[in-house]
Design a protein that fits this description.
- By secondary structure, this protein is of the alpha+beta class.
- The chain has 4 domains: 15-54 and 343-400, no CATH class; 71-106 and 111-209, no CATH class; 226-339, PAS domain (Beta-Lactamase), CATH 3.30.450.20; 429-580, 2-Layer Sandwich (Alpha-Beta Plaits), CATH 3.30.70.270.
- Helix content is 40%, strand content 22%.
- The chain has helices spanning 12-68, 71-78, 93-106, 174-180, 225-232, 279-288, 337-340, 342-357, 363-388, 403-419, 429-439, 462-469, 471-488, 513-528, 561-575, and strands at residues 113-118, 123-130, 133-139, 147-151, 159-163, 186-187, 191-193, 198-208, 214-223, 241-246, 251-254, 260-262, 268-270, 302-306, 314-322, 328-336, 452-459, 494-499, 502-508, 547-554.
- The strands form 4 sheets. Strands 1, 2, 3, 4, 5, 6, 7, 8 and 9 form a 9-stranded antiparallel beta sheet that branches. A 5-stranded antiparallel beta sheet has the order 11-10-16-15-14. A 4-stranded antiparallel beta sheet has the order 18-19-17-20, with helices on both faces.
- Strand 4 and strand 5 (159-163) form a beta hairpin.
């Protein structure tokens, strides 16, 4: 028998010597591709950081709007449009005190000072010092000095405190002159209130008699201190800056600094980009100053790159604030590029080390690592792109415990912070704008987006609750009401807090009037139930609020976000009981 030759088995050392070059080559390719993916990831981080910076600039703009807008309600409460006013205030002082007390109760921060002066040189003003304490400032004749009185309530008897040593002539004040000559509500430029040591604006409008003659001017001061505090608390990188600046370089608010300062001679002065002693703020202002000369229509957010020798590669996001007040401000956020990519560079070093270690391990491990990293980076990049296009609910399918996982977690946390109301846990105004823009945007090839219903919910007795049980209980009530609304709706429906005691509900896919009415009834019934989260309510006593609900159907009633909100708001007002309007 002829023996059959047996196959020669290679030794383990020979196998290893043959495999190692391939393992090394594949490992090096894996490492190089991994570094390429992480470099792509750094671009995704840059895009995400720029998106977050733009959102912060937009958030500053919304805060400025919320800070200044309530002053119109304050003036209207003090002197309602069309209501006659006395030519001589001496016989009407108690009634005027009541109106000024109510007006200064609406938005005590910042509108705690409301005042009126007439063409005869008389004046009356109320400064709220505490919820039940006010200071009355009264001038009943043109030639007399203004007197100060202490008030412990709306109907309390004024208690004399002092008389000013200098003669205060309201008719010579800029706010009186500007308002007397204008048919519109006027604003003064930002100025330093030397008595309060604060930066303020004044909003005023003229008061006419029944025959159209000028009788006087009502005004209120708006402190800008809260804006500075808000900007200072914005979370940025170690070297980042956020600020609000006027066209001439004067600062309204800035990170880590006041908006006024005391000179060496003891006098107060405005802080500007030039005297702020902050080189980055000065350089950023010089870079974007030309944006103040662009047309104001649209006022869309902008971006820029600062590439001077000192602040190289500093990214800038800005939002121009051309307000109804006539102010021309800019909300600016600036972050050095190196701050954005610190974690990415650290991770690239880690990947390089893993690539070297991959020379000593199996090719499968290296491939699996590369595949996992690539998938997670793709997922993160898609999420960043989707959020940039307005799809703020895009999930982030990244489950890691390293820098990429931290980046995904921070992105999720920043997105939650930007689009969630911190008090109630509902979506905030910014999130609502994104959601409505997405829902009203037709899909490719379609002329109209999918139908949905929008409900405008306004609480009926929230202010009395606040007045009687305190603001802390008011906050608890808003949180409980938000939870009730979320429990009533489906998981993919939306509950958003528009502001104050107003909520917006979005019912996806609902186009039937009967369905909307059924939900409205559930909401009205649920909000009539006693509140259970309030503290300090005596046993046996119940507190309820109730609500008025308005509706709008897309596309039946309107095809854009603002029109839908307006239709629902008008419908809510029609449904509101006259006693709670």
């Amino acid at each position: 028998m002829i023996p059959i030759p047996q196959p020669v088995r290679a030794s383990k050392s020979l196998k290893l010597s043959l495999i190692l070059p391939f393992v090394a080559l594949i490992a090096l390719l894996t490492s190089a591709l991994g570094m390429l993916w992480y470099w792509t990831g750094s671009n995704a981080v840059s895009a995400l950081s720029e998106q977050v910076m733009q959102e912060k600039a937009e958030r500053i703009a919304l805060t400025v709007d919320r800070h200044l807008y309530p002053s119109s309600a304050v003036l209207e409460a003090a002197f309602p449009s069309g209501q006659s006013v006395p030519a001589d205030i001496r016989g009407h002082i108690p009634a005027l005190i009541s109106r000024l007390w109510v007006a200064s109760s609406l938005h005590t921060r910042p509108n705690d000072y409301v005042y009126y002066a007439n063409v005869a040189g008389q004046g009356i003003a109320l400064k709220r010092l505490a919820p039940e304490l006010g200071q009355l400032r009264l001038k009943t004749q043109a030639g007399e000095h203004r007197s100060y009185f202490r008030l412990t309530g709306m109907h309390a008897e004024p208690v004399y405190e002092s008389t000013e040593t200098h003669l205060f002539e309201p008719r010579q004040r800029p706010w009186f002159k500007l308002a007397a000559e204008s048919a519109e509500v006027i604003w003064t430029p930002a100025y330093i209130d030397f008595s309060a040591k604060d930066l303020v604006l004044t909003r005023a409008r003229r008061i006419l008699s029944g025959k159209g003659r000028l009788e006087g001017v009502v005004a209120t001061d708006i402190s800008l201190r809260a804006l500075n505090e808000f900007v200072s608390q914005l979370h940025l990188s170690e070297h980042g800056r956020a600020f609000i600046i006027e066209a001439d370089g004067s600062l309204i608010a800035a990170t880590g600094m006041p908006n006024i300062r005391r000179r060496e001679d003891g006098q107060l002065e405005r802080l500007t980009a030039a005297n702020s002693q902050d080189p980055l703020i000065q350089a950023v202002y010089d870079r974007i100053q030309s944006a103040f000369h662009a047309p104001t229509s649209g006022a869309a957010p902008g971006t820029a790159l600062l590439e001077d020798a000192v602040h190289r590669n500093t990214r800038i996001a800005y939002r121009r604030l051309s307000l109804d007040s006539g102010q021309d401000w800019m909300a600016v956020v600036a972050v050095p590029h190196r701050d954005m990519l610190t974690g990415v560079y650290r991770h690239m070093v880690l990947v390089g080390s893993l690539g070297l270690l991959a020379l000593l391990v199996a090719v499968v491990i290296g491939t699996r690592i590369f595949g996992a990293v690539a998938n997670d980076m793709r997922s993160l990049t898609r999420a960043v792109r989707s959020v940039g296009q307005g799809e703020i609910d895009t999930p982030i399918d990244v489950q890691r415990r390293d820098e990429i996982g931290e980046l995904a977690h921070n992105f999720h946390r920043m997105r939650h912070s930007l689009f969630t109301d911190p008090l109630t846990g509902a979506s905030n105004r910014s999130a609502l704008q994104h959601i409505l823009a997405t829902l009203t945007r037709p899909l490719p090839g379609q002329s109209m987006a999918a139908p949905f219903a929008l409900l405008f919910v306004d609480l009926d007795r929230f202010k009395p609750l606040n007045d009687r049980w305190g603001h802390d209980n008011g906050d608890l009530a808003l949180a409980e009401i938000s939870l009730r609304l979320r429990n009533l709706l489906r998981p993919d429906d939306v509950v958003a807090r528009l502001g104050g005691d107003e909520f917006i509900l979005i019912l996806r896919g609902v186009s039937d009037e009967a369905q909307v009415q059924a939900v409205r009834l559930k909401i009205e019934h649920a909000l009539l139930q006693p509140l259970t989260s309030l503290q300090g309510v005596p046993e046996g006593e119940t507190v309820t609020v109730g609500a008025s609900v308005g509706q709008a159907l897309y596309p039946r009633d309107a095809q854009d976000a603002q029109s839908l909100l307006k239709v629902a708001d008008q419908d809510m007002y029609r449904n509101k009981t006259p006693s709670v309007r």
